[in-house]
Every structure is written in structure tokens, then in C-alpha cells.
Design brief:
Length: 162
């Protein structure tokens, strides 16, 4: 019984891979599901598969849902934060959303070649970054944690640190 189930799973994987050659993965799984529903459960009976061209066209030409495929941003995540003075000096602005602050810091790191060549996870801090992080070398994920000390809400409260 186990061998039959394993061969069926492998077979359906092959069907998905062969169908995906002409379209995207979601289409391949849709057609494979259609095929699987039309297959008998007897593992010894010969399997004859055919997906009609009409079925393929129906799946391909199905209208997309409005807004499907578009990723919506989190409004709370994109709220502007007030930056501390050393951080504002580094990024050149006094208020920015956190993702934009991180992006500007990475632009500074790349422009000045501050990433450690032997281990790219570490950043060698220059004078401007040492004013912010108070260390000579910082791990990229620790950098994001330390950054929260320099961000506060525009209305005056400090950002919560995780």
C-alpha cells in the first residue's frame, strides 16, 4: 500500500512538472488536481491522462481577482519615525519610516564599502555609524536591533524594542 501511494505521489509530481513547462506553477497544480480527480484509485489499473485544450484555456483565461498579485503594505509599519540627531545626520532627514531608514543605512554601507570582506554579515562602522551604534563592528541583524534606540514616534513616544 505504501509503495502504491509513493508512486502515485511521484507520478503526480511528474505531471505537475510536465504541465508547468508551458505555464506558471499555479496553473500546473490546477491541471494536476483536475487530472488527479479523474484518476481511479486502483493503483494496478492503467492510467490514461488527458487534459483537454478547452480545460487548459479555461484555466489560463480565467479573469484575475481585482487586486490579486498586488502586495499591500502595512500602514503601521510605514509610519514616519522621528530620528535621533546622529541618525538624522547619517541619513540626511529628521523623519522617515523604519524601512527607509534601514535602506539609507545600507546605501551608506555600500557606498563606503563598510561590509567586512571575510564575513559579509558584519559591518565595520565608520565615525558616523559609531556615533549611532557605539561599537566598531556590528552584526547586520544586531544593527537593526540597535537602530530602535534611535527611532521614536512622531507624537513623542519611543518605539518598542523586540
Amino acid at each position: 500500500m505504501w509503495i502504491a501511494a509513493a508512486t502515485t505521489a511521484v507520478f503526480h509530481q511528474d505531471v505537475v512538472e510536465s504541465v508547468c513547462g508551458f505555464a506558471n506553477l499555479q496553473l500546473g497544480f490546477t491541471i494536476a488536481l483536475h487530472i488527479k480527480q479523474n484518476v481511479t484509485s486502483d493503483p494496478l489499473q492503467p492510467r490514461l491522462f488527458s487534459t483537454s485544450l478547452a480545460f487548459r484555456e479555461q484555466v489560463v483565461s480565467a479573469p484575475a481577482e481585482p487586486g490579486e498579485g498586488k502586495r499591500k503594505g502595512n500602514a503601521a509599519f510605514m509610519k514616519p519615525k522621528k530620528l535621533s540627531e546622529p541618525l538624522a545626520d547619517l541619513v540626511g532627514e529628521t523623519e522617515l519610516p523604519r524601512p527607509h531608514v534601514v535602506k539609507k543605512i545600507w546605501e551608506h554601507i555600500k557606498a563606503n564599502g563598510l561590509q567586512d570582506e571575510s564575513d559579509k554579515r558584519y559591518i565595520e562602522c565608520d565615525a558616523a555609524m559609531q556615533n549611532i551604534f557605539n561599537v566598531e563592528r556590528v552584526h547586520m541583524f544586531t544593527m537593526n536591533k540597535l537602530l530602535s534606540q534611535h527611532l521614536s514616534s512622531v507624537d513623542g513616544g519611543e518605539e518598542k524594542s523586540s
